[in-house]
């Protein structure tokens, strides 16, 4: 997989290193000469250019990329890169970094963003996830289909604890993708029995989140 990363700062270099370790082809693009540190990520391709300019993106051969990551520290730049990548080059997957949570509402399909990653929001969500039982926590937003990756730790009093996955009347537009039980990561089968304390990860339409939380957290009648 070929990945272009706009922004060769600490975030961009870190992402590049992880992708290279996983066997992907990575191009780092930055307009600041001081950011071009080939020795820090020697296996990556490097391009000194402004990722907001069509001529630069032509040079980067963005049309050959499977993924573009807009990882600069400027939200305006990340939005422009995302829009150009999607509309001018037809990049299948565009991931954008959100620096200011107030701008998160802009990072959607209209700007070519498939996945928006807000570090402050993600850190907050991870704190909530660590301490919350029975509350739905939004971990990641997907622009297409207005869907989110959400998590809920099943409380002991939940009405569906002890129920098989296939017997639960899940809301529409939701999909249970993973069950984390202790140190195990389980692929949910129809016969898998849900247990109190399970961490359940769903991809769910935002409009269904409240309904999903009610289903998972509703108390058993004594």
UniProtKB/TrEMBL annotation:
The residues covered by the RCK C-terminal domain are 137-218
The family database entries (SUPFAM superfamilies) matched by this protein are listed as: NAD(P)-binding Rossmann-fold domains (SSF51735), TrkA C-terminal domain-like (SSF116726)
tRNA-binding among keywords: no
In its UniProt record, which GO terms are filed under biological process? monoatomic ion transmembrane transport
Asked whether the UniProt record includes Transport among its keywords, one would answer: yes
Q: Which domain of life is it from?
A: Bacteria
* InterPro entries according to UniProt: K_uptake_TrkA, NAD(P)-bd_dom_sf, RCK_C, RCK_C_sf, RCK_N, Trk_Ktr_HKT_K-transport
Domain named RCK N-terminal is located at 1-117
Bilayer-crossing regions: none
* Matches recorded under PANTHER family: POTASSIUM CHANNEL PROTEIN 2-RELATED-RELATED, TRK SYSTEM POTASSIUM UPTAKE PROTEIN TRKA
Q: What is this protein called?
A: Trk system potassium uptake protein TrkA
